[in-house]
């Protein structure tokens, strides 16, 4: 279930923030999700230039992300909150890549996951959940 939530997160986040490093993007996405910050999480998901210009995409994305954020918050609550997110490994090409993360909760529970990343048309790293 936790892997499903992470995979879905990793599949659903972009729209505005960006310009930072791939580490900042991935950590920011996961931290926002576990903290309940839907807008920030959604802003870190990859969207094509066309999708970014489509006025119907952002509200739909935020709605779906909101559901995922709610589930992630429940996982964090179950484990006494989020302690840290560590970047374990990266395999980056010019425009796409993967980032292995370790999510550590305050009760000691850890989750290892692989997240896909992709640069958008502005050259910003975003989480690629599609």
Provide a descriptive summary of the structure in words:
The protein is of the alpha+beta class. 43% of the residues lie in helices and 26% in strands. It contains 5 helices and 4 strands; from the N terminus they run αααααββββ. It has helices at 2-10, 22-35, 38-43, 49-53, 57-78, and strands spanning 82-92, 96-105, 110-119, 125-127. It starts with a helix and ends with a strand. The relative contact order is 0.25. Residues 6-18 have low confidence and may be disordered.
Order of helices and strands: HHHHHEEEE
Radius of gyration: 14 Å
Q: State the total count of DSSP E strands.
A: 4
Instruction: Order the strands across the largest sheet as they lie in space.
Output: 1-2-3-4
Uncertain segments are 6-18
Average pLDDT for all residues? 87
Strand composition percent: 25-35%
What is the count of DSSP helices, taking H or I runs of 4+ residues?
A: 5
The portion of residues assigned to helices is: 40-55%
What class would the helix/strand composition place it in? Answer: alpha+beta
The coarse overall form would be flat
The separation of the N and C termini measures: 19 Å
Report the major sheet: 4 strands, antiparallel
Strand and helix layout:
Elements: H1 2-10, H2 22-35, H3 38-43, H4 49-53, H5 57-78, E1 82-92, E2 96-105, E3 110-119, E4 125-127
Antiparallel strand pairs: 1-2, 2-3, 3-4
Helix pairs in contact: 1-5, 2-5
């Amino acid at each position: 279930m936790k892997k499903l939530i992470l995979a879905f997160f990793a599949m659903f986040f972009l729209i505005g923030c960006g310009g930072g490093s791939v580490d900042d993007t991935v950590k920011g996405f996961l931290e926002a999700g576990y903290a309940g910050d839907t807008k920030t999480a959604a802003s870190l998901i990859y969207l094509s230039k066309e999708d970014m210009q489509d006025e119907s995409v952002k509200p739909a994305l935020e709605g779906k992300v909101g559901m995922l954020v709610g589930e992630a918050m429940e996982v964090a609550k179950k484990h006494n909150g989020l302690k840290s997110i560590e970047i374990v490994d990266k395999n980056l090409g010019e425009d796409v890549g993967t980032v292995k993360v370790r999510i550590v909760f305050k009760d000691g529970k850890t989750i290892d996951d692989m997240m896909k990343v992709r640069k958008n048309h502005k050259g910003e790293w975003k989480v690629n959940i599609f």
